[in-house]
Each structure stands twice: as C-alpha cells, then as structure tokens.
Amino acid sequence: MSKQNRGRLIVIEGLDRSGKSTQCQLLVDKLISQHEKAELFKFPDRTTAIGKKIDDYLKESVQLNDQVIHLLFSANRWETIQYIYEQINKGVTCILDRYAFSGIAFSAAKGLDWEWCKSPDRGLPRPDLVIFLNVDPRIAATRGQYGEERYEKIEMQEKVLKNFQRLQKEFREEGLEFITLDASSSLEDVHSQIVDLVSNVNIHETLDVL
Length: 210
Known about the structure:
Catalytic activity: dTMP + ATP = dTDP + ADP
Shape: globular
Strand content: 5-15%
InterPro entries: P-loop_NTPase (IPR027417), Thymidylate_kin-like_dom (IPR039430), Thymidylate_kin_CS (IPR018095), Thymidylate_kinase (IPR018094)
CATH class: Alpha Beta
CATH topology: Rossmann fold
Pathway: Pyrimidine metabolism; dTTP biosynthesis
Keywords: ATP-binding, Kinase, Nucleotide biosynthesis, Nucleotide-binding, Transferase
Number of helices: 8
EC number: 2.7.4.9
Number of domains: 1
Structural class: alpha/beta
Distance between the termini: 20 Å
Helix content: 40-55%
CATH architecture: 3-Layer(aba) Sandwich
C-alpha cells in the first residue's frame, strides 16, 4: 500500500491526568468530521482477559511482581497490534492513547532495568508521530479523580516524567518524530496544536518497527 493510502499511526502520551484521553477523543472526532477514517485505541485495553488483570492491578485489587505486570502491559499491546495493522492498511488513522513508551517510563520508574523494559515491545510498529503532553505532576495531582489508581502519586509521576524526557531524546536520535506539548494550556489550544501536528506529519510508505 502506498503511503498516500495507508492510515497514520499516532500516539499520544502523557502523565496521569494530563488530559491525554480527552485529547485523543477530540482528535478522533476532528478527523472523522473531516471525513477521514479514524479509530481510537486505549492502552491498557481493559476489555481483554489480560487487560482485566491489569485493571485489577492498577486498582490495587491484586499484587503482581513488577516484571510480571510489565510483561502483561506489553502482551496487552501485542494482542491488539494485528488489528491495528489491518486498519492502517485500510486507510484508517489509528490514535493510540498510550503505547510502549508508557510501559518503559512507568516500569523504569519502579527501578527496573531500562533496556529490559524496552525489550518486550521491540517489533511493535513504530508510530508516525508521538505527542507527549507535558504537565507539572503537582498540577496533575489537583485534577479530578487523581489518586484512584496505583501510579497516581506525585513522586512516581515525577520519575515517569524524567523517563519520558529520556525516551524522547533516545527515540528522536533514532529518527522518530516525538514532540512535547505544554498540556497546561487551554483544552482548545492543545487540541489545535495536536491537529496541526497530525495534519502535517510525514509518513513513510510502510511502518517501521520499534
């Protein structure tokens, strides 16, 4: 399939309560309003058997070894990826609310080896664009429902932020378009910036892999 016909693979990352999920939905709605084919994917996908186990972990209903939960997060992405490829080949732009970068950033924040954290997702498709919504963890902590899940603690989020900054540097050196936006701006302003970035992203004929 030519690059003119395939869909784009767009990832939006951010700290918890950064407004990421809202922006993902706004982007999908915008693309559809422009008569483009678009679909939203949220990771973790809590509807699958693996996703339900992750959901229990995040809600602190069960305890799991850090390595085990990291591999479950990765498996949750792998079990969806064939469908994402199929959609992209049909010309559907796929918007991902979190991806492998979150897996690395959060697990490494718990002290797991950096390269080990990256390894389970090697081979997943490389996005055409990654947008990181940057917000001060202390500001995010003031937003509604903060603290309901395991990782929603300021100290943890500060470590995750540093890891995202490291990921951006490493992947940009590999040629990935990885952009940071100030998520403390208004909802409308952030949305407008995201739409501009997505509209102007350069795509290759085929997706590379991580």
